[in-house]
Amino acid sequence: MIIGVSKAFSGIAPRRYKRGVEALMNYAGVDEDVDVWLGKRILAVLLLGVIGVFIPHLLLLAGVTLFDYSQPNAEFYYSAMSGLALLLLTCVVLYFHLYYVIDERRKRVEAILPDFLLLIAANLRAGMTPIAAFIESSRPEFGPLEDEIRVVASRSLGTESFMSIFGRLSERIDSRVLKRVVGLFTTGMVSGGHLARLLETSALDIRETQELRQELESSTRMYIIFVLFVVLIGVPLLLSISIQFLVKLTALKSQISNISFGEFGYTFMMVQSTLEPAFVENMTYMILIGTTFFVSILIGVINEGKLMYGLRYFIPLAVIGVVDFIVFRGVVQGILVALA
């Protein structure tokens, strides 16, 4: 029944979108039928969207007023916006989950790829055929690569040529390095050159590239630590001090409206400010969330050269930044009360 319902909901998506999702599923190592997999996600997204519609009404019944209901049709408007926001958020979370699964598979495969190539080269020098050397080089610790090698080995027993089956290996793992290795391996098999030497050279080049990347990450780690210190400690502390200063200034302004200096006739007028502490505090949360968003993108670019890779750090950094601000605000307020 669940499979039938899932396939029915998958009909909502166009064919071109399904082909894109199927390619992502292959890269993620998901062997489930694309209609069933996609239908389950669409059903979950729609259900959460419906739940989001009732959130403002449930909050209102619980006595929690987060919105202004004085305007006509305000409850309908906020319900629609809440449902749409939760629906879009669910779509984003599902996509990012699939993206990070694909990226983790790529990183695991690229980490062990030099060892795999050296094993193939050693088997070739031992007198094995390229097909046998490729299959016998599989190890359980290779993880996703070992699973895909097992699939290639089972398909090679059929009528399909090994070249076409081996070429599909790059369609299951989204790695440019693996695609180049597959191209070199198939070209070497066709040309009949020194395949073992070619694989050894490729393995050494990949390992040198990985070492250079690790050195680059080590050299930029201090910059990341400094940026995180500024965002998670410096910015919340300065903003908390600014808000407490504004609170004191507002209290002083409410108590003193006109100070006369007696016989000199001088008058000191308090400067009228349109900034309210509540407004500045709300803006502070927006500043912290926006700053941590861009910092997470920066971390992803520095570490992996990808914008989306750093977005996994956005929610933890935003939560830490907001919590630090609340803590610093209480500490600064306590210090000012103690000094008063």
How would you characterize the overall build of this protein?
Its main location: membrane. One of its GO terms (cellular component) is plasma membrane. It is found in: Cell membrane. It comes from Fermentimicrarchaeum limneticum. Helices cover 77% and strands 2% of the residues. It has a two-stranded antiparallel sheet. Helix 3 runs antiparallel to helix 4 (74-125) and helix 10 (195-255) packs parallel to helix 12 (314-339). The chain has helices at 2-10, 15-28, 34-61, 74-125, 130-136, 144-155, 162-167, 169-172, 176-191, 195-255, 277-304, 314-339; strands at 258-260, 267-269.
Mean pLDDT: 82
Tally of separate domains: 3
Quaternary structure annotation: single chain
- Secondary structure class reads mainly alpha
Protein name: Type II secretion system (T2SS), protein F
Keywords: Cell membrane, Membrane, Transmembrane, Transmembrane helix
Organism: Fermentimicrarchaeum limneticum
Domain Type II secretion system protein GspF: 116-241
Task: Please describe the structure with a list of short key phrases separated by commas or semicolons.
340 residues, mainly alpha, flat, transmembrane helix, 2 strands
Short recap of the structure:
With 340 residues, the protein is mostly helical.
Question: Secondary-structure blueprint of this entry?
Answer:
Elements: H1 2-10, H2 15-28, H3 34-61, H4 74-125, H5 130-136, H6 144-155, H7 162-167, H8 169-172, H9 176-191, H10 195-255, E1 258-260, E2 267-269, H11 277-304, H12 314-339
Antiparallel strand pairs: 1-2
Helix pairs in contact: 1-3, 2-4, 3-4, 4-5, 4-10, 9-10, 10-11, 10-12, 11-12
